[in-house]
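hiii so um. not sure if this is the right channel but i have a protein structure encoded as C-alpha cells and i wanna go backwards to a sequence. like what aa goes where. can anyone help
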C-alpha cells in the first residue's frame, strides 16, 4: 500500500529531474567554454532551483547551521552521514550558489533522467563490488576536485534509514586526501522521515549542520588516519545533538496538543 501511495510522488520527482535536464545544453555549453567557474555557477544555479522545487513539493523544512564553514574556494569534499534520499536535496540547499556533485552507486547510471543528471552536475558512479573499479572512480574524483569542483561522499556506503549512524567504510576519505582537498564534515538529521521511515513521502524537518573544515594538504599518513577518526567522531557527536533537538521539538509539539 505504501508503494502505491508513493507512486505519484515518484513520478513527480522523475518529472522534476526531466525538467532539470532541459538545462543540460546550458551546462554543456559552460563546460565546452573551458571556463570551470562558469560551469560551476551554471550547475549551482540549476541544482539549487531544482532542490528548492523538490523541497517544496515534498514539504521539507530544511534548517541549516554553519554555512560560514564552507570554504570560500571551490575544490572541497563534503563528508556526511546518510539517512535517506532527501540528504542530497538538503545539501544542495545548504550550500546555495555552490556547485556540488556526489558519488552514487553505479546502478543509478542506468536510471532514466537520474543518471544523466548526476553526470552533468559533475557527480560520478562507484561500483561497490569491484575494488579496482571503485579505486579508478576515486582517482577520477580526486582529479575532478583538484580541478576546482566540489563533491559529496557518504562514507557509510548506504542509507542508515533512521537516526543511527553506521560505521564509515575504509577508504572513504581517499577522495579528499588524494586531491589534498579540504574535508567539510556535515551532520544531517531527520531526512529519513521524508521517505525511508514509512516507505512513502511525508512532510519532515531536516537539520543540516556544517562543521569546520579540515585541511588535508599537509597531513602525513598518520595525521590523515587521525583526522579521519576525528571527522567521523565529530559528525557522530553533532548528529546526537541534532537528534536531541528533533526529539525536544517533537515533545514540545505533543505537550502543546494535549
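sure thing!! here u go:
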Amino acid at each position: 500500500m505504501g508503494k502505491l501511495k508513493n507512486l505519484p510522488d515518484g513520478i513527480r520527482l522523475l518529472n522534476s529531474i526531466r525538467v532539470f535536464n532541459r538545462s543540460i545544453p546550458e551546462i554543456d555549453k559552460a563546460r565546452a567554454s573551458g571556463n570551470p567557474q562558469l560551469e560551476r555557477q551554471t550547475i549551482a544555479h540549476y541544482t539549487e532551483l531544482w532542490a528548492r522545487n523538490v523541497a517544496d513539493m515534498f514539504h521539507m523544512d530544511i534548517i541549516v547551521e554553519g554555512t560560514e564553514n564552507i570554504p570560500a574556494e571551490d575544490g572541497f569534499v563534503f563528508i556526511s552521514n546518510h539517512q535517506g534520499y532527501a540528504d542530497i536535496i538538503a545539501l544542495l540547499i545548504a550550500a546555495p550558489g555552490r556547485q556540488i556533485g556526489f558519488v552514487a552507486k553505479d546502478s543509478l547510471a542506468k536510471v532514466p533522467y537520474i543518471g544523466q543528471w548526476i553526470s552533468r552536475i559533475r557527480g560520478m558512479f562507484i561500483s561497490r563490488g569491484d575494488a579496482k573499479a571503485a579505486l579508478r572512480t576515486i582517482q577520477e574524483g580526486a582529479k575532478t576536485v583538484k580541478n576546482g569542483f566540489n563533491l559529496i561522499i557518504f562514507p557509510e556506503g548506504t542509507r542508515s534509514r533512521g537516526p543511527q549512524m553506521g560505521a564509515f567504510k575504509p577508504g572513504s576519505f581517499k577522495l579528499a586526501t588524494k586531491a589534498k582537498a579540504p574535508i567539510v564534515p556535515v551532520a544531517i538529521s531527520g531526512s529519513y522521515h521524508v521517505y525511508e521511515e514509512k516507505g512513502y513521502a511525508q512532510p519532515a524537518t531536516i537539520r543540516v549542520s556544517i562543521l569546520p573544515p579540515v585541511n588535508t594538504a599537509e597531513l602525513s599518513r598518520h595525521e590523515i588516519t587521525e583526522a579521519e577518526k576525528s571527522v567521523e567522531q565529530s559528525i557522530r557527536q553533532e548528529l546526537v545533538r541534532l537528534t536531541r533537538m528533533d526529539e525536544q521539538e517533537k515533545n514540545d509539539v505533543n505537550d502543546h496538543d494535549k
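oh and The helical segments are 2-20, 24-32, 36-57, 86-94, 114-120, 131-146, 174-179, 221-257.
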